[in-house]
Amino acid sequence: MKQNTTVNDNCAELRPGVAATTGFIPTCGDNGVAAKHDYIAEIPEKTGLDTIFLAPGDMVCVAARPIKAGETVTVEGHEPLTVLNDVPRGHKIALEDIPEGTNVVKYGFAIGRAKQDIKKGEWVHTHNIRTNLGANLEYTYEPTDDTVKPGRPTTTFMGYRRANGKVGIRNDLYIVPTVGCIDGLCDTMARAFRALHPDCGNFDSVIVARHPYGCSQLGGDLVWTQNTLRGIAEHPNAGGVLLVGLGCENNQMSLMKEGMHEYVPERTRFMICQEMEDEFETAADLLEELNDAAANDVREPIPMSELKVGVECGGSDGMSGITANPLVGRFAEWVVSQGGSVILSEVPEMFGAETVLMSQARDEGVFHDVVRLINKFKDHFRKYGEIISDNPSPGNKAGGITTLEDKSLGCIRKGGKCEVEDVLWYGERLRRNGMSLMETPGNDMVSTTAMASAGCQIVLFTTGRGTPFGCFVPTLKIATNTPLATKKHRWIDFNAGRLLDEPAAAVDEDFRKLVLETVNGARANNERNAMQGVTIFKDGPTE
Questions:
Q1: Which phi and psi angles does 212 have, rounded to 5°?
Q2: Is 234 within the bounds of a domain?
Q3: 78-129: per-residue pLDDT in tens?
Q4: 226: left (phi over 0), alpha (psi -120 to 50) or beta
Q5: By the 8 A CB rule, do 59 and 50 touch?
Q6: By three-state DSSP, how is residue 52 classified?
Q7: Domain count within the chain
Q8: Full domain range(s) for residue 210
Q9: Which residues form a coiled coil (predicted)?
Q10: CATH for 100
Q11: pTM for this one?
């Protein structure tokens, strides 16, 4: 049954201080010209801060606004600083003279080393520092004692308890093709259902898990596709699932069913198109059966320990590790303290920050799993002759991220100080409450899909440059800066740029309220705009 929620579903009101505007400013890449590094720099910045100083021992601060050469700016805990170059928002400024070859420290850790002498007040970026990443390292288990461990729930959310005991936060209808060549057929089936049920019937959304794979795939790639699709087909956010096969593909329906141990028969239907006289007529009948089965579904109070959250970033900038990622990290700590689950993924964006995660490992066994996770993905890069440190994209660099260490130290802040309870390999499901690390590439579409397929009911996705991608589960977009939240109001659900001007406690409270309203039924922008995609990882030559 589709339920009316009492939560505020107006996206503008869910984002205090963000005004909707229209228009478009073209994106610029890293062309070495400081004035063109920020594609939203034309929007006025209201923050009263000049710079942001992150941690004791840091050799750089971060520009909180565009700074002109010759300006004298304030830096917390330091004397006024005269800036020698134009510095875009989110980029770094040297707080001291840094000799060539010296490690440059930000977040309290080295983000690379100077490749030339850097003067105090100078703009610090790709032109004068380089990465330290290279060969595999030897690691030692040195646990920290200030991690957030799984606790007991003290509050609840409103969710759907399924017959297999799992809990969903949506009552969606999923149509899952086993092979990419029938994506169009599945789209037509979904359109036909919506034509009969313009309000989606007893469901919140009708989602087709479109993908290009499953036809001639072999080996590990086929297993990855199967495990990802099984995770979608058995996801508790679905009140009904229709799995559709063609009939001649390597990803046979019988193989899919063999690995599905948690599906609810009353809510799952299977169909092979080549065996049907009229696949559209058959699909229509099966979808009506599922719609009828969902007629009496209602939300009920669920302990917060059953909330499963994926944390993700994409289109990151120099503010990601300062505003949005720490905001999400503090929420992750709260979820874990309530006994809930969090997944942190994108292994290449742990390179250079992996020792922090290793120190948060629950025990030495998990520590060794993290070591294997890091080294396995470095070997994956080398297998194809790729340079391990080449991850930061042109957009990342344009936004102020200089090296992969710089990016990674900001990325891992989405997990806060949560103890690492488990390591999941690509395609696996969540096993333990608390925070798990997951093997995925540095690709936000693949990683978001993988975390949702692993059982996350919602994904919290931070972005500094802006990206519209949303997964098949609610995907809340958190802007790192106010100009982005203002410009891309149809993409962004929450403005973490407020942290530059408002107390963190107030912003955290508003963010937690938004997330819980979304968990309880308020629609995220990706749901309002039908941006509910699926992207599957592959390694081999077969499709």
A1: -100, 5
A2: yes
A3: 999 999 999 999 999 999 999 999 999 999 999 999 999 999 999 999 999 9
A4: alpha
A5: no
A6: strand
A7: 3
A8: 172-296
A9: none
A10: 2.30.130.110
A11: 0.91
